[in-house]
Structure formats: C-alpha cells, structure tokens
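for the recovery benchmark. tokens below, seq after
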C-alpha cells in the first residue's frame, strides 16, 4: 500500500502532463485553422499568383527578345540559351499547375500558407533566371547580330504575316452578310486588334530607321506577334462560324430527339432522376426550340445551346440511364462540345494582350482540359474534359 500511495502523485502528474499537451495541440490546431490563419493563407496565395504573373510577363518578354534578335530557331544561337528558354517555359507552366493546387481551401490554412510561400519563392527564382538569360541573350546579340540586319528581318516578318493572314475584310463581309452580330463579333474584334497591332509595328519599324536599338526592335516584334495572333483569330472565328452553320440543323434535330427521349424517362421513372428533372428538361426543350428558330442567323449560338441542353440532360437523368446509354450520349455530345471549347479558347486567346492573372489561369486550365479531351480514348472522359475546358473560359459574346 505504501508503494501505491507513493505512485499516486506520479500518476496524477503524468495525467496532468498529458492533458496539458493535448490542450496545447488543440490550441495550436485551432490557431492553424482560425480566420486569421485562413486570411494569411489567402494572402500568401495571392502573393504566389502575383509572382506567377510577373514570371509569365517575363517569359513573354524573353520570347519577344529571342525573336527580335532572330534567335528562336537560329542554328548559331548558343545551346545554353535555347535550353534556358525551354527551362523557364517549363517553370512557368508548372507554376500554373502549382497555383491551381493552392485553390483547395479545405487544406489546413497554415500548410496552405507555407506551400503558397514556397511556390512564390520558386516563381521569383525562375524570374531571376529569366532576367539572367535575357542579359546573356543581349550579350550574344551584341556580338553576333547587326542592328540593320535585325531591322530588315523584322520588316520581312511583317510582310510574311500580311501574306499569311491577308485582308480580313472579305471574311468579315461574308460573316456579316449571313449571320447576326453575335456570331461574327469575335472576328470583328480580332480584326480591329490586328489592325491596331500592325499600326504599332509599322510605327516601331519607322522609328527603327533612325534608331535600330534593341528596345525599338523589341517593340516592333511584340506588335508583330500581336498582329499575327489576332490575324489567326479572325480566320479561326470565320471557320468556327461556317462549321457551326454546316452542322447546326443536324445537331438541333438530334438534340431534340434526345431530349424527347430523356423527358419520357423522367416522366416514367422520376425517382431515378434528379429532383425536378421533368421541369428541367421541359425548360431545356424550350431553350432548344428558341435556338432552332434563330439558327440560320445564329448557328454558333445554336451549337452552344445544343451542348448546354445535352449537359442539362445528363445531370437531370442521373442514374436513370445505364452505362451503355451514357456512353452513347457522350459520343453524340462530344463533337459539339469540343467545338464550343475550341471556340471559347480561341476567343480567350485573342481577347486581351495583357489579361489579369486570374484570366490567364482560367485559360491555362482550359488549354489543359482541351488537350486532355483530345487525347482521351473514352468518350465520357473526353466529354468531361471538353466541358471543363468550355466552362473555364466562356466566350465573350455581344
């Protein structure tokens, strides 16, 4: 008994120590999930996003610098420059992926904050490498490139761009004649942007007559890159509109049959469908009918409506269809949804010359999902990727 009595204080002290340690753990954990911790994590993520924007801008400026000194595909460009440029491109692309991972707000805020800070530091380190690479490029160009020859090369690129893109007015006139503004506004915006960029390039090339400095040549090169990008966007918008016109009638008819069949299932088996499936499908039919009535003048909107109502149909039916039926539906919906995704990505790429980082991230996700859709061998998986790409960057209309 004396031994037991002597052990009691020790046991009490041990229990008290365990309780104190548990309280400390709970307090630390609570602090790590507190509103202040969440705010700190959000601030760190915003800092990482800003670091990504700086790196993305720096990589774009580096590409302009490479092109302005004719070093993109030049056989005499040092291997270290080409490899360095490829490395910073990979770092920039990885930055978009790393930042997307930080969007998970269910993670422990303190851990999310630390990860965001690490990502931001890595992005800043990559930007420093871009700066060093640019300095090395300048040194190489100063030793091996003639300013007058580079000015002549820029002029040649201008002529090549004009020859490749041609006059956009005939394409625009054809679109305006056949379709409403909603179906050619993307092409018009791109044509206006291309004309403005070409004007900027011409001004820079005129300045280069008396001042063929690296800064002036880079200004001309950046403008020419914009003109080329927007010129391609005109052609893309023209092609997309004509393809939509060719396919709209058939797609609308097929979607109508699919919605009729889906409505029959929803009426017969409401318990297997999503809540209010019948009402949802009837509303989709009305939307489809409205698109069909305007399809001759608005075929792009008709194709987009078909893609939307098919997605609505899939959500409404839920488990009321079997695996084979879902696969058949995916195969039918995939071509039109891919067309919508491609159109949305093309419009987003042409929309702004220096978009905010949030828009750049959405475009990067859309490109990733679109590439996954094209590579997928399963129709359902490809359709999910195509829908994700489409919803990431909805095309600006009107």
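predicted aa per position
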């Amino acid at each position: 008994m004396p031994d037991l009595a002597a052990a009691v204080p020790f046991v009490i002290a041990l229990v008290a120590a365990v309780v104190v340690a548990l309280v400390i753990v709970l307090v630390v954990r609570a602090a790590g999930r507190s509103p202040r911790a969440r705010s700190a994590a959000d601030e760190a993520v915003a800092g990482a996003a800003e670091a990504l924007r700086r790196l993305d801008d720096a990589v774009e400026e580096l590409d302009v610098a490479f092109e302005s000194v004719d070093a993109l595909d030049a056989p005499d460009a040092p291997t270290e420059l080409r490899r360095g440029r490829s490395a910073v491109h990979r770092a920039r692309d990885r930055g978009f992926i790393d930042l997307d991972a930080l969007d998970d707000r269910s993670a422990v805020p303190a851990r999310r904050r630390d990860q965001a800070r690490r990502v931001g530091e890595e992005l800043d380190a990559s930007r420093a490498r871009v700066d060093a690479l640019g300095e090395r490029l300048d040194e190489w160009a100063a030793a091996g490139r003639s300013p007058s020859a580079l000015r002549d090369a820029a002029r040649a690129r201008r002529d090549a761009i004009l020859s490749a893109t041609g006059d956009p007015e005939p394409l625009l006139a054809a679109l305006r004649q056949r379709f409403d503004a909603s179906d050619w506004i993307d092409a018009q915006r791109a044509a206006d942007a291309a004309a403005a960029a070409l004007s900027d390039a011409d001004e820079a090339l005129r300045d280069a007559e008396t001042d063929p400095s690296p800064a002036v040549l880079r200004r001309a090169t950046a403008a020419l890159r914009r003109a080329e990008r927007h010129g391609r966007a005109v052609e893309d918008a023209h092609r997309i509109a004509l393809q939509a016109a060719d396919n709209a009638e058939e797609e609308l008819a097929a979607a109508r049959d699919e919605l009729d069949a889906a409505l029959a299932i929803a009426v017969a088996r409401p318990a297997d469908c999503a809540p209010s499936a019948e009402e949802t499908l009837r509303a989709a039919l009305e939307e489809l009918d409205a698109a069909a009535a305007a399809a001759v003048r608005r075929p792009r909107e008709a194709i987009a409506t078909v893609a939307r109502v098919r997605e609505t149909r899939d959500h409404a039916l839920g488990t009321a269809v079997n695996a084979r039926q879902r696969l058949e539906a995916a195969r039918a919906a995939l071509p039109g949804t891919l067309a919508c995704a491609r159109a949305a990505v093309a419009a987003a790429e042409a929309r702004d010359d220096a978009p905010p980082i949030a828009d750049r991230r959405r475009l990067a996700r859309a490109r990733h999902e679109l590439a996954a859709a094209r590579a997928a061998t399963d129709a359902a998986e490809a359709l999910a990727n195509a829908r994700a790409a489409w919803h990431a960057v909805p095309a600006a209309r009107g």
